[in-house]
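To: structure desk
From: M.T.
Subject: fold request, one chain
Message: Could you run this one when you get a chance? Sequence is below, nothing fancy, just the single chain.
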Amino acid sequence: MELLLKQNIEHLGRIGDVVKVKSGYARNYLLPRGLAVMVTKSNLAAIEQARAAALAEEQQRVAAMKELAQKVGEASVTIEGRASAEGHLFGSVTAGNIAAALREKGIPVEDKQVRLAQPLKQVGVYDVVVHLHATVEVNCKVWVVQQKTA
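Reply: Done. Structure tokens follow.
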């Protein structure tokens, strides 16, 4: 059965795509939830308008993310932690810690956007990847320093 998608559906297609699916999937899931419609001339025209609007919105979002990426790239974050004499942290610095430090500087970043292969466990300077959008990634400099004793 061929259907016209009204929304982006992961592993199936994007808005406006004509997809071929099993009839049960169409009848029981896609059509009742309003995710797809039958392929007709009027539906094609309506979906094209929706696709154009979605494309314009996506371009605006990408432009905003590029501006944010520039701010993130210019920022550097310092995180203090208790460490041994050799520089090994007693805890670790996680993506949540880095995101919180960026938010304190006025840069709206979510925890899941900060990509760490593993938590940082040594004192030092690190380049951490911040994934803002599918097409926008930027490196942020993170300084992990020993906490000053009071």
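Reply (cont.): Residues 69-146 form a domain with the Ribosomal Protein L9; domain 2 fold (CATH 3.10.430.100). Let me know if you need anything else for the meeting.
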